[in-house]
Amino acid sequence: MGIGGADPVGEIARIVADLHVRDLVQAYDVDYDVPFRHGLAGGVLQLKQAFRPVPGAGAGRLARRVGAYWCDIVRADVELDLQQGLALVDASRADAARLTELLDPSDEDLFPAYAAARWHDGAGRVLYRSGSHARGRMHFTTGLEVAERHGLWWCLPDQRSNVLRARLEEARQAAPEVMARRTAEIIAEMAAEAARCEQAADEAGVPRDGNALPLDRRWREFLRGYSNVLHNLSFALHHDRQPVAALGRSLRSLAVSEALGDSYRQAQSLNHQAIVIGAHHVALHRDPAEADALYRRILHLRWARGRRIAQQQLARRKGGFEGAAELAGLLAELAAESAATGGAAGLDIDLRSFTVSCYQGVSAGLPDTEEGRAARADAAGRELEMARSVRQVIALPAYKRAYGGAVRPVYSRRIAHLIEQPATGSGDRDRYEEILSLTEESSGRELLDLMSTAALPQLDLAEDEEAAPADGSGSEAAGGSGEAAQAVPSARGQAAAAQPRAEQPGGDEPESEQPESDGTRGGRRDGLRRAADPAEVEADRVALLERESRFEEQFLRRPLEAAPHDPDVARRAEMFVINHPGTALVRYFTYGQGAGLTLGAFVIRDGLRRPVVCGPYAPVQELINELAARRSPREEHSRRIWRLLVEPLLGDLGDPSTLDHLVVVPTDGLFSLPLHIASPDGYAPGSVPLGAQVPLSLSVSVTAFVTRGRYLLRRQRVSGSDDLAALVVDDPVISGKELVGTGWPEHRMLVAGRLPKGLGVDVRRHRADWDGLAAAVGTRPEFFVYAGHGRYLAEYGELGPFLQIDDRHGRPDRLTPFDVALRLRLAGNRLTILGACLAGQGAQTTGGDVVGFVRSFIAAGAGALALPLWRVLDGAMAETGRHLLASSRAAVTQDGVFDVVRALHEHYRATVAEGDGWIEFMPLALYT
C-alpha cells in the first residue's frame, strides 16, 4: 500500500504503530545489517522513540532502548565511524549495565538477555577497532557470558569468535615465545568452535552453505556467526604462516556469506583471500593475478569501504601513471569527505594512510620525468596533509591508535629525509627550522591538547571508590604524633648511612623486609613492589582500564580542543635563549624506522644550529630496558647515559658547567632515563653528574616550555601565606620527613594520612583517602607533596603507574594518572613533589607522548614537578624534598623569589661533594 492518500501522516503513523521494537532488534543482524538496511531500521527506531531515556524502567523497557542503541552501534561499526560509535556506547552504557544487572536466568522472555548480550558485543567491536583491545575484550567476554547464561545459542558462534579474536590481538603484543604459545592455543579453540558449529548445524539438518538456507532467523544468525568463526580462524592461521589452511577456511567462510547474501562478510573474505594469495602464491601454487580478480568482485558488493579498499589495491597493482592517477583521485575523495564531515573526527585513518602509502609506492617507480617528479612531490605532500589532519581527531582511543600506527611514521620519514640532505650553506637554516617544527608537531600532542582545553571536565574527587586492594592487603594504621619538632639529620649524616648500597653483581639487590624509616636512609618506598603474579597484574590492569574508561568518556561528552601547532616554534626557541643568556635548550628526537631508528638532538644555545646525530637508538633502548629491570641505577648506568645522550652534544653545547640553566626535552623512552645522574666517569674523582654540574630541568616539549610559558616556573614568587598540603601513606617505611624541619608554619600545613614525627598539633589533619586528598587540593596549595608508594609494571603499558591511596573503608586503592587529570585542580601551584617509587615512569608510546603522572599533573595545573624514576630510598627522598621546601621558605625572608631549579642543583652539588654513592641520593627529576 502506497503512502499518498488524504492523510499521509496518519498512514505513516498506522504503519509505525504496527511495528515492534523488539522484533526489529531481534531481526536486525540478518534482516537489516546483512542487506545494508541500516538507515531503514534506524528511522523506524527513531519514529518509535526507542532511543528515549527510560529512567526507573524495568528490564523490558530498558531492553528496547539498549537494543536500539546496539543497532546504531552496529551501523557505526560497519561504517567505521569510530567517533560516533564511541559516543553511542557512552550514551547507552549506564542502561546497558543496569539491564545486565536486572537479567533473570529463569525469565522465559529472552529479549532482555539478547539486547544486553548484543550491546556488549557491539561495544566491544567499537572499542576493539579504536585500539582499546583489552577493554573491547572485556565487553566481548561480558556479552558472551550473558549469552551462555541465558541459552542464546544462535548468538554464541559470533560472540565466541569475537572473544577469541580479541585474545589473539592481545597475544600478538606479548613476547615472541609467549605469542607463539598463545596463538597456537587460540587457533585450537577457534577450530574447536568451528567444529561445534558444524556439528550443531548437521544435527539440526541445517545446510551450512549453498542456496537451501533455513528461513528461521535464529539459524541464519547462527550461520553468520559461524562464518565469522571461519574468517577469524583464517586470519589467525595466516599470521601463523599456515597459508594453505588459511585459504581453505576463508573459502568456506565466503560460501556461507554468499548464501546469506552478506556483502560485508563477503568483502572481508575476498580481501583476505587476495592478501593471502598475494603473499603466498608460490606456496599455494596460485597465480598472483587471481588477487586482482578477487578485488574486482568486491567492486560489485554493497560495502562502500570494501569497494574503496579494492580500488586502492587494484590501482596499486596496476601501477604506472594510470595507477598513480587513480590513487590520487581516491585520496581527493577521502579528503573531500573529511572536510564535509567536519575534519578527521570521523575519518577512516587506516584507509587513507594505506592509500597514501600505495600512492607513494607507485609514484616512486615512475620515470624520472617532470610528470613523475610531480607525482612523487604530490604523494609526499598528501602524506603530510594526512598526518596533520589527524590532529582534529577528538576521541582519545581513536586518536592514539591512528596517530601511533599511521601518522607519526610519516613525520619520522620526513625528518629523516631532511636530515639526510647535504648541507648547502643556503637554505640550511630553513631546513633545520622545519626539522624542529616537525619534531614538535609530531610528539607530545595529547598533553598539549589537554593543556589547551579551556576547562577540563572535573569529576567529584570525594566520590566513594569501591577499591580492589592495591597491594593484596589492608594498610596498617600508624597513628599521627604530636611530638615536638626535633633536629632532622642528613640522610648521609651517619657513617653507616653514608655508605653506598651494596651492588649485586649481574643483577638486582635481593628482596628484604623493610625496616621502619627514621628519615635518614631507611627502606625503599616500594611497598607495592611484589612478584608479578598474573592474577594481581590482571586486577591492576582491569582497575586501570576502568579509570582510563572514565577519562576517555569525559572527552566524548566534552571533546578536547586540538592544540594548534606553532609553526614558528624554532624561532621562538631561539629568541628565548637570546633573551635568557646562559640558557640552553636540548630537544631530543628520533627518526627513521626499524633497525635504522636514530636518535638526534637540537642544541639551542646561541642560536639554532644543525641537528646533532647522537647515534643508533638501539643502545639507548637497551639501556632503558636494563634500568627498568633494576631497583635503582648503578654507576655504570651513569656513564652510559653520559656517553649516549650527553657526550654527542658537547661540541655544540660546550662545558655544561658554564650554563645558568640547561633545559632538556626528552622523547620516547628517554622520559624514563635519569639524565641528571649522567656522569663522564661515574664515581671517579672529578667526575660530576649533570644535575650537579648545571642547574637542570626537563620539559615535555619546546612548545610547552616556550610557547605555553612553562619556563616561568623556574623562578616564582613565594610568601609566608603559602599553603603546603601533603598526602602521607600510613606505612612505617614512609617517614614523611620531607615535611619536617622546613621552616613552614604549621598552621599553613595540611597532612592527609600519617603525621610525620616532628610535626605538631597545629597541622590540619585528614585521612590518606579520597576525602583527604579532596581536602588537600581544596586548600589550593602552592606546594603539594605525596609521600608513599608507587607501582609500575611493563604489563600496564600506557595505563600506569599508580600511587597508593586509601578508600573510605581504609583499604588500599589506586590513585592513577587518569584520576589526577579528572579529579585534581592545582591552580596557583608552585611545586609538586611526588615522593613515590617509579612515579615518573610510564610506557613508551608510539606517538612519542609523555605519559603517566608527568602528563596528568601538568594537565591538572601543577607548577614545577619533581618526581623519581626508580625505587627510591626513603631517606634520600625525604632529604631532597625537605631541601626544596626549606629553600622556598628561606626565599620568603630574602627577595621573595624561589628558584626551584637552582635549589635542586645546589642540593645535588652538596650531595656529590659528600663522596661516592651519590646516585641513590639524587632521586628527583625536575620538570618545568
From TrEMBL:
Segments for region (Disordered): 464-537
Biased composition (Low complexity): 483-505
Signal peptide: none
Biased composition (Basic and acidic residues): 518-537
Amino acid composition bias (Acidic residues), ranges on this chain: 506-516
Superkingdom of the source species: Bacteria
Record InterPro entries: CHAT_dom
CHAT domain segment(s): 637-879
Name of the protein described by the UniProt record: CHAT domain-containing protein
Taxonomic lineage of the native organism: Bacteria, Bacillati, Actinomycetota, Actinomycetes, Micromonosporales
